[in-house]
Amino acid sequence: MEEERLNRCEESKKIEQGTNLLIQFIPDTKTSHIPVVQLTNQLEANEKVPIVFVLPGVEGNLKPFEVLTSSMKTHVVDVQYNYQHPENNIQEIAQNTISHIECRLTRTVPFFFIGYSFGSAVALELVTLLENRGHLGTVILLDGSPTYSRCGVKKLFGSEEDANFQMAILNKIFSLVIPFDVLSEHQEALLNGKDFEERVDIARALMPPETINKQKLEKQAPVTLYTRLRASPDDLHIQE
């Protein structure tokens, strides 16, 4: 009995940790629709220092890194990807954000981009568009390049055949908040879902009722993640 109780406590702790991990990547609903957000720091708003545009990873916003960026001695602008209506490819993300970036630039001051992981592909696409419009600048890629990003997705999720790809993503996400044995028992039901959104509904119904912050783990989060992971960097205009 004691061992069973300890196992339940351990499972509950794991689910709570997984829930908290997922929630930190869900954007603030008050700002998630804004393409670019200037992050707070210790500088005056009109202080003449460079602007650094940061292209985040697949989570689409810099919320997990806000503590780090708040101490930077420069103006940091978070380039956000659309959460409620995620773009289908890298080009769409770049086209939807370039006007919001370009209005903060001048041709006499070089731009400065930092692309992290998935954001590296977005940064390269934006740089190409800006250079074609006469802008010059610097781009730094952290933990990512078009080839690296695609290989990373393949390594993490395996087959890109759509049903298998969807199942791999669902299992990765929901294994954080659903006991392994429960998730395993319902693999066939998940696979029989007519599309990704229905599979998400099935998986969410398996979440334990006592899950902390269950209401915050909304359906849109895995749908957006799936769409971004399918956004292929293979057809970028810039070549590595």
UniProtKB/TrEMBL annotation:
Q: Which SUPFAM superfamilies does the UniProt entry name for this protein?
A: alpha/beta-Hydrolases
Q: Which InterPro entries does this entry report, sorted A to Z?
A: AB_hydrolase_fold, Thioesterase
Alphabetized Pfam families for the sequence? Thioesterase
- Which EC class does it fall in? hydrolase
Q: What is its EC number?
A: 3.1.2.14
Q: What superkingdom heads the lineage? A: Eukaryota
- Molecular function as annotated in GO: fatty acyl-[ACP] hydrolase activity
Q: Which residues form the Thioesterase domain?
A: 51-149
Q: Give the protein name, as stated in the record.
A: oleoyl-[acyl-carrier-protein] hydrolase
Species annotation: Zophobas morio
The upper taxonomy is:
Eukaryota, Metazoa, Ecdysozoa, Arthropoda, Hexapoda
